[in-house]
Design brief:
Blueprint: H1 4-12, H2 18-34, H3 38-46, H4 49-59, H5 63-88, H6 129-135, H7 138-146, H8 153-173, H9 176-184, H10 197-203, H11 209-224, H12 228-244, H13 260-267, H14 273-287
Helix pairs in contact: 1-2, 1-4, 2-5, 4-5, 5-8, 6-8, 7-8, 11-12, 12-14, 13-14
Amino acid sequence: MMQYIPRLLTDIVSNDSASIIQLIYETLLLTWLLSFEYEGIVQLVRHRIIPQLHRVLQRVQKEKCVRVALMALWNMVEAERKYVQHQLNPNFTEWVDPGITVLAKLQERHDGAGGAHGAPIHGRRGPSLVAEMVSVGMIKTLNQLQRRKFGDEDILVLVEDLNRALEQNMEVLTSFSEYRGEVLSSYLEWTPVHTSAKFWKENAQKFEENNYEVLSVLGKLILETKSDVTLAVACHDLGEVVRYHPTGRNLLSLACLAGVKERVMTLMSHPHAEISKEALLCTQKIMVQRWEFIQS
């Protein structure tokens, strides 16, 4: 049954008739109740509930729907916080239901997303619920909600609390150490760090550290990975390094990147659409001196 909840929101959220609004509200209410149970969170997230809750916040004006969607998201944020705290310090004073360990199931990739054959996300301490919220654009939507006037004052409190939690985590999610850990795990996914222009501007030169350690692994992934998602993300990241590093495409003459440029060019004809797209963009960034001048 759990898989039908996100699907139901997908089908009905674009309709704002009175009867549909009530159905949306009842679906959100069920989602919120399930989010109090850790196993409920696991099942909801596996079936892509976070993008659907984000869609509700973007499109549905009814306050009761907005409020319940925010409360469900907040329960997920709190669950992740407690899980991470419990893992780092099992003896910390806040009581945690022993059942919270079920959230470890979300460390695995599902439905073909991420690593090959559902490989675990190495180096992660727990579920990436906040990372997923950030990656779907939740911070921008919350900022827009902060400018709305609500009759229910509790909604703005929820918006501010959720926004604060996401922005605090954004600093960690877009740190170079977090990025390094992901690259060295050999499994890449579209976490917020990859699409953050601020990250690339501030950290491009850090790719020189430890004798180009991270850049070397990135090149190796492009040459050897069997994961479509990892390959697409690696092509994207190489293009961003070339784009923002002071020496730009000259980096590709490094011994650790031997054959990488040629590999990227061949990937432009890859049958997987995302890989061919990212390979094309990467090649353009390699070939063009001032990339910003040709951006649309």
